[in-house]
Amino acid sequence: MKTRRTTLRILLVAAAMAASGASPGADDARTAGLRAAEIKRFEANVNADAKTLGQLLDDGLEYVHSNGELDSKQSFIESLTSGRRDYAKSEAEIESIRILGDVAIIRGKAKVTVIDAGTSRDLHIGYTDVWVWKDGRWQMTAWRSARLPDSPVK
Amino acid sequence: MNALRRLLPLAALLGMAPFAAAAPRGDEASARDAILARFDAALHADTAALERLLADDLEYCSFRGTCQTKGEYIGEVRSGKLKYQSIEPVVERVKLFADSAVVLGRVTVTATREGAERTVTLMFAGVLAWRQDRWQLTTWTSTIVNPQL
Q1: Contact partners, residue B17, CB within 8 Å, separation at least 6
Q2: Labelling A136: which of A40, B88, B105, B110 has CA 20 to 30 A away?
Q3: Does residue B10 fall inside a structural domain?
Q4: Is A64 on the interface with B (CB under 8 A)?
């Protein structure tokens, strides 16, 4: 596990936070919990923290990178711990969090510097990830992202 | 049986319906059908069907990384700004929850946007919410798997 917390910056905008199926107080708590989980997940990516990712990622995770590459939970964590993929920097801006019962959707943008098989790339992506409430905690089950027009495509 | 018949009025009085079918609920098959119906409606520019199949709070995030509301998306289909030539979806997984479902799959789309035709293969994630006795698409997001095209 790396320790590069200083390279991570999370901007919390959460412009449109909507929730359903619970009282406002409970919604606020669940939204806050999700936001915290998302921040922790970005940090764990940068730090290649397999233990934290093991808790935050669903066993059925489908992680589709912006270049179309598909990872499972196991292959995603392995790519970080082996050093094959290295998130050197990650700036995420959470734009919305929506909760639909036991499913939640987070949408945002991120500026990421990733060293992939030795090649460094600066990416600006729009992302949407889907979380599910399982075993008493939020777990990310799907990640989809797209490079924004100002992102270099390599 | 006679004893059971005698209990029916009591059950009715207590608001129970021992022999009534449970209220219809979304299941895995119907979630899959809802996603496929949404593709079919888009292909045929059937905006009335899209109005039913898409939730009012839809966030439609395309492979370009930008998101639209239900009104914006249907408006593009209605106006012909976005016109689908073919849509070939494969639903790979459905994860069912109490009042929602996550549908994952691939789809190859040929569409014309503002006159420019493009074919893309996408890996998508759709989140459906069970509302008004039917599935409604509340989130759509996808990543292009052939970005070089």
Answers
A1: B11
A2: B105
A3: no
A4: yes
- The tally of domains found in chain B comes to 1
**pTM for the whole thing?**
0.83
Residue B69: which CATH number?
A: 3.10.450.50
Give the burial class of A147: count Cβ atoms within 10 A of its Cβ; 0-12 exposed, 13-18 middle, 19 or more buried.
Answer: buried
ipTM associated with this complex: 0.82
CATH of domain A5-147: 3.10.450.50
Q: What pLDDT, in 10s, does the model give residues A79-116?
A: 999 999 999 999 999 999 999 999 999 999 999 999 98
Spans of all domains in chain A: 5-147
Contacts of B123 in chain A (CB under 8 A): 62, 64, 68, 70, 144
Q: Which two tokens stand for residue B43?
A: 């292909």
Would B41 be classed as within a structural domain? yes
Minimal C-alpha gap between A41 and chain B (Å)? 20
B91 touches chain A (CB under 8 A): no
Expressed as residue numbers, the domain containing B31 is 22-144
Do B97 and A102 lie within an 8 Å CB cutoff? Answer: yes
> Does residue B15 form part of some domain?
no
What the block records as the tokens of B63 is 């492979």
